[in-house]
């Protein structure tokens, strides 16, 4: 009968355990000095050696002739434990035996001395799965067991254990095994099993194992099933991954807003029957590396990459701001959760998310807005125009910045209450960007008037809502400006709202609310109501005004 490689190559002594020297050295010392604890707690992620070390410790404490704290593997005690005939070493899976009655059985058994070995050892795997009643039944026995009993508890979720249990055990934290150790171990196993494994493929398998030795050996066995030379392409094919190069190319497509490349990559992944969740996790891993390169001064210390991959990653990181990378990571995280709960529409989720990542104006999340503000701040500080990620028409570079507040040029619109378009005023040359680095340039109104947005208009709407809820509902999509004559221009997107707000009492209420914001007398406020294109009104925001102003060459 075939035996899985991870079982065949399971360590039999502490010396064989890889990457956990900080634990095995202590356990060897305790065994050699006969300074054993009554209860041990092994915690850490999957495949890092918790159960393996528990079995080795059970053999070591019962070994008739231990070698430097490790079991000899040849005596009767070691052989009986290895073949499962030792009744004094009991291994229990708490995931399927988590009731209080199972713990009561253990509590009743511990009073009896071992039948053939020196110690009676209880190995409880996945101990966090025990019920609260089971934990309560275990407490007293775990704290003061008989001298011939040793408990070894193993868990992957330490936070689920009661503090009363943790405090009664000698705790050991198993670390994720490093990439180099994993690659060296699976290369050795491949050599012993007659597999031809390339060093790059070994590193690829080690990286995909994410610090777990069991996962690494299982991946090696999967790739070895092809009965041919194992290279990086073989590993990617067996795991349904496109490889590092594909991930870097799609990040480059995002930076360039190359929609054709994005849709082609996703289409190819779907056509080859690859799991889009694995594809997405690889992309998240690349963005993690981009963040490390962008933020850490010694990024190479935290990246398991070749020099070529690091150089390419550094080049790509230079094309993104930190705020943009954080916004993209937020979108990737949300998309991953959506994919895990909606298998049928994974492709649509992936494509929609990648399109949103290409165009920052499509991301309305807080992170997306912060990324746009970051770009704007850089433009204001340096005097360089903001370049959108999406393809846009070329604009002349910003050479001068005015002291006036941000404004938007508005073409004359037809309305009964619209005043005649005023003639553009002559303006003096503004100061240079270096003289006024905090100012934001205003757009020139050569083809019409210039309207300055009333920034606190939402406060005005709130004042109106306190007195007339219905009137405030018509101001949901409204925008308020001041023209050159200090007249208030209220722009609406539909004629019905205009008719309702033109009622004398409502118009008077609006004037009072706006006057309070402008710190003026209500009698001096002149209000004009206009109808504008609905699409333009819905797409325009204060942030868009600022970005347009920073892009302007006037």
Summary, kept brief:
This protein is of the alpha/beta class and 554 residues long. The protein folds into four domains: 5-174, P-loop containing nucleotide triphosphate hydrolases (Rossmann fold), CATH 3.40.50; 179-239, Helicase, Ruva Protein, domain 3, CATH 1.10.8; 243-369, Up-down Bundle (Zinc Finger, Delta Prime, domain 3), CATH 1.20.272.10; 445-551, no CATH class. It has helices at 5-8, 21-32, 50-62, 76-82, 100-109, 132-143, 163-166, 179-192, 199-209, 213-224, 232-239, 243-256, 259-271, 276-295, 307-317, 322-341, 346-358, 366-382, 457-467, 469-473, 495-501, 504-518, 534-539, 542-551, and strands spanning 39-44, 89-93, 120-125, 149-155, 170-174, 407-409, 450-453, 479-482, 488-492, 527-531.
Please give the radius of gyration in angstroms: 35 Å
Distance between the termini: 80 Å
Largest sheet: 5 strands, parallel
- In total, how many domains does the architecture comprise? 4
Strand order of the largest sheet: 2-3-4-1-5
Say what the CATH topology of the largest domain is.
Answer: Rossmann fold
Name the overall outline.
Answer: elongated
Average pLDDT: 80
The CATH architecture of the largest domain can be named as: 3-Layer(aba) Sandwich
Portion in beta strands: 5-15%
- Strand elements, count: 10
Extract low-pLDDT stretches: 388-447
């Amino acid at each position: 009968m075939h035996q899985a490689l991870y079982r065949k190559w399971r360590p039999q002594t502490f010396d064989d355990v890889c990457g956990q020297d900080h634990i095995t050295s202590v356990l060897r010392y305790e065994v050699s000095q006969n300074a054993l604890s009554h209860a041990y707690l092994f915690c850490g992620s999957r495949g890092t050696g918790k159960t393996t070390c528990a079995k080795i410790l059970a053999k070591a404490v019962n070994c008739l002739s231990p070698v430097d704290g490790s079991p000899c593997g040849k005596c009767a005690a070691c052989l009986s434990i290895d073949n499962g005939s030792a009744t004094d070493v009991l291994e229990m899976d708490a995931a399927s035996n988590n009731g209080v009655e199972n713990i009561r059985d253990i509590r009743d058994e511990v009073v009896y001395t071992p039948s053939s070995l020196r110690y009676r050892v209880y190995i409880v795997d996945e101990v966090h799965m025990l019920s609260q009643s089971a934990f309560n039944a275990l407490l007293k026995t775990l704290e003061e067991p008989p001298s011939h009993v040793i408990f070894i508890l193993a868990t992957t979720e330490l936070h689920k254990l009661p503090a009363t249990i943790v405090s009664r055990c000698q705790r050991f934290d198993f670390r994720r095994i490093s990439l180099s150790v994993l690659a060296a171990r699976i290369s050795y196993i491949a050599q012993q099993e007659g597999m031809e494994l390339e060093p790059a493929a070994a590193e690829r398998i080690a990286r995909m194992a994410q610090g777990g030795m069991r996962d690494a050996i299982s991946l090696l066995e999967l790739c070895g099933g092809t009965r041919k030379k194992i290279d990086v392409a073989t590993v990617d094919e067996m795991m349904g991954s496109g490889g590092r190069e594909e991930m870097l190319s799609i990040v480059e497509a995002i930076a360039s807003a190359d929609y054709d490349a994005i849709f082609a990559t996703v289409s190819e992944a779907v056509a080859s029957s690859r799991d889009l969740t694995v594809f997405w996790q690889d992309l998240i891993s690349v963005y993690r590396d981009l963040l490390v390169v962008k933020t850490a001064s010694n990024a190479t210390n935290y990246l398991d990459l070749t020099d070529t991959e690091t150089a390419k990653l550094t080049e790509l990181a230079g094309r993104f701001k930190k705020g943009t990378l954080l916004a993209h990571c937020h979108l990737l995280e949300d998309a991953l959760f959506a994919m895990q709960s909606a298998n049928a529409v994974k492709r649509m989720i992936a494509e929609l998310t990648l399109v949103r990542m290409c165009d920052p104006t499509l991301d309305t999340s807080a992170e997306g807005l912060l990324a746009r503000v970051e770009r704007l701040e850089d433009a204001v500080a340096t005097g360089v125009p903001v370049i959108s990620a999406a393809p846009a028409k070329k604009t002349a570079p910003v050479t001068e910045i005015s002291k006036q507040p941000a404004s938007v040029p508005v073409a004359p619109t037809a309305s009964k209450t619209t005043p005649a378009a005023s003639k553009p005023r002559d303006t003096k040359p503004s100061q240079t960007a270096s003289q006024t680095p905090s100012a934001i340039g205003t757009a020139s109104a050569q083809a019409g008037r210039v309207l300055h947005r009333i920034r606190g208009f939402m406060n005005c709407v709130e004042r109106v809502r306190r007195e007339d809820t219905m009137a405030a509902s018509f101001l949901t999509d409204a925008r308020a400006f001041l023209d050159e004559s200090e007249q208030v221009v209220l722009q609406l997107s539909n004629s019905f709202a205009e008719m309702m707000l033109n009622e004398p009492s409502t118009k008077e209420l609006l004037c009072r609310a706006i006057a309070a914001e402008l710190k003026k007398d209500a009698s001096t406020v002149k209000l004009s109501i206009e109808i504008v294109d609905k699409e333009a009104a819905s797409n325009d925001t204060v942030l868009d005004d600022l970005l347009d102003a920073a892009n302007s060459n006037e």
